[in-house]
Fold each of these.
Amino acid sequence: MAGVSEADFLLAARGEAQELGGWVVAAIFDRQGQLGFALADGTIRIGDRTVEAHDGAILSACADAKGGFLTGGDDGKVQHTGPDGTVTTLQKFGSKWVDHVAAHDSGIRAASVGKVAHVLDASGKVLKALPHPSSVGGLAFDTKGKRLAASHYGGASLWFVAAKEDKPKVLEWKGSHHAIAFSPDGTHVVTAMQETALHGWRLADGQHMRMSGYPSKTHSIAFTSRGRWLATSGAESVVLWPFFGGGPMGKAPTELAGGDEVLCSAVACHPQHEVIAAGFGDGLVLMAEVSSGKVVPVAPPRGSAVTSLAWNATGTRLAFGTEGGFAGSVDLTKR
């Protein structure tokens, strides 16, 4: 951000930062507010503790329902790491990679291995193995935890977790689909594609929604808390698609915090307000308010792309991590 000194960034006055020495796969606040950073070298950093979670790389990570962190690795394991650093193996899938994991507050979990999405219960037992036509590109539970969405080549598949007969609702669209998200009210599913576009489906009638015009592939998508906006990376600004008033079809997107000719690489939406956290390819982190467009600088550029952003449950803390292993968090409580 031109004309902004390092002292103007929240990280200087309200934050703490550390060099972790490895690609940050995910910054995660667990259900109790404990912050952890999952790294590509197979470790999780919790405070000043380094935990060896995998015998190889961590490929995916999220907060787990029972507290702590859920991770999948190229060692074929689904691991749970507690806030105290205790590591428990929930499942082992041989030498196959666990590409994606997801967890819901109900205790249900999912892990994808190649073309199969496995549904796990609270103890880690595999309840179902759900096959797909190609490798799973992303996993997402709906807000209630009743449906699991998996993206893949040719579209996405929706599964009812508790169904006696596992038959998916297939959402078709040509191309390779990866990141996937449910709208908070469960009425829409959106995927980011290998090409520079997004695709969405309105579940009530199967209406297609194509969102294109990006200069680069979108890796990060997130709905605002009430589902009015879909925030996305992949452009020089944060691109927001309206999911109200008949949108997004026929509606122009809103753009926030652009102008420095650096691509946005990660987004995360505040859990209560229409505020977006965004990370960029040069390491810049900022927050932007949707209604006013006001931008607050969080962390200055350090030459390494932001790979992950995370809010705690109350929206009073924001954490980030980068490709180069620089990570930090800021305290946003009123003073």
Amino acid sequence: MPANLVPPRPEELLPVAGVSLGVAAAGIRKPGRKDLLVIALRDGARTAGVFTRNAFCAAPVVIAREHLSQTGPVLPIRALVVNTGNANAGTGEEGIARARATCSGLARLLACDARQILPFSTGVIMEPLPLESIIGGLPAAIADLRPDNWFTASQAIMTTDLVPKAASRRITFDDGTVATLTGIAKGSGMIRPDMATMLAYVATDATVEQPLLQEILHHATRASFNRIIVDGDTSTNDAFMLIATGAGTGRPILDDADPRFLALRAGVTELAEQLAQMIVRDGEGATKFITIRVEGGSTEDECDRVAHAIARSPLVKTAFFASDPNLGRILAAVGYAGVEGLNVNGVRLYLDDVLVAESGGRAAGYREEDGQRVMRQTDITVRVLLGRGTAGTTTWTCDLSHDYVDINASYRS
């Protein structure tokens, strides 16, 4: 079971004016499963994106990047198409051709240019994209287009996820106008910070200039999806898209001096953090949700290196799964994180409020039973104080269980 993760209720998800979502069961990998999503946008919507840095990026990533670079106010993005069950990654030029054909097929149905379509895929790598199934499923997805279809959309993009991931919020600006935000995400394995290791789509009805929208997206990514680790692998298909439809009632946000810019950026970031944490709580086989806070660093970068070393360590993660306070494993990870000139005698380690280590070894007041009490919790905070400065960072991770091995050993069967 996911670690303290409650599925969203459909009625909690707010429609965003200018966005409609439609789902179909196209038979891409498993018959009868919702596996194809179309997100249609009003003419004039602005779209920003960030993508995986994996050099073996999937064909839809290549095409989505290309189409985003070619579109703008004259030729805006009109729709996104997402399939699950097949990643269309490691598929060479044929994969590129099938991603283009998917865009062309949807563009014909929506009477727009193929460059106005962004494709996304998730699933098994190095298998040909079943283009006929996708093209055949598009009419049903279009017929299903509705503004209140966010929950079903969140189900349609799942792979090994156990729980759909979606959230909404409203932002009331100082001038009394309101912006609506709703987002969905998928991800459970192949999760590590390097852009974003999943698929995520967030939309708002605010009117935002394109450069500002991209700035909001990068800020939100750094604070959310780039701070999660399940297994340390970076996917070939990662993408995080932010859409501003301009269909709301507020005035356009034209520059970053507008106080509404900061308010919207904060709202998008909070929503992205919520979705990112849902991914970790639903990590493959996860039973524990672990917050790693590294404080007192000389730079944020060295704090990140320490946090990521702890979060990626199989020895640390399996100790958490077993509720075994074998906490020397955490100190070892801090030590090999690559912090130049680290004085280990100045490092302090806490589990929640329990001081575990200081002055280079076990804290004088530490008791094994206190460590085990914390380790038995579903939600745990690891706090590392480096004693080198004022920088800090936070990363979210989970434990590593038997189920993770079982899920990934039989992923294609």
Amino acid sequence: MKLKWALLAVFFTITTVLTGCEPLLVLDPKGPQAERQANDIMLSIGIMSFIVIAVLAILTYMLIKYRASKQSEDYEPPHIEGNPIVEAICVGIPVIIVIFLSIVSVKSNYIVEATPQGYEDQEPLVIYASSSNWKWHFSYPEEDIETVNYLYIPTDRPLEFKLYSYGPITSFWIPQLGGQKYAMADMVTTLHLAAEVPGEYMGRNANFSGEGFAENAFNVKAVPPAEFDEWVEEVKETASPLTEEKFNELLEPGHLGQSTYTGTHLEFSPAPEHNHGSSEQDEHSTDEHHESGHSEHDDEHSQH
């Protein structure tokens, strides 16, 4: 009786505590990529929960049915041969589960690495996301603006992030929009995302990169396309230009607040030329952008 009340008290305590917790961000998706990953997580949890419950139920049954009992000292238990059907089930079910989860994982991996489903016919918004100790720089080459430690993105439009680093390896992650992906110093990795719900989201570096790692985060604001266009125009009218001297100052190790500039650092400090995870067309357009950036930079030097 005491055990029963103790278990009820534990259950009531856990339930009360959990009701005050916010939902896990990875299980509160706001975009197609994150939704796919959240579904896979819930599928895995469901399968594992079924296995755990089934195993515990069988264990309880076996412990009760075949529990030890008093026997005479000369008692000798009967010899029992293995049952091939039971052994086949014990081996076969785990193999089937592993194969099923492997197929789901591989299929999902190809889906989340590509343009979000339903957005294949739209032109993506390209954003170069580069990290430095311990901040994030977001360059919008089409809009010719740059932000530090915050992102403004339109909803219902595919996003194509070009990731790289000016310091140690970092990991770009917006849990409610998709999974993390590494940003490295000598190459560009591509991450495809999309936001379908307006709102403010948390983004951060998910890879330990030194003493300032804990605060290496950024804010993400998803707004309707019309509002995004208004923000771009406002930035062009009010923000200061980003100079090479100012950018080098931003690269110094330390923490900064949010800031906004016209122009991007891609003009004088282009992204690495090696692209990983992009299509040939993406690489070609990126190379053209780099070449144009280099030529403009060379022209400026020749004029000086």
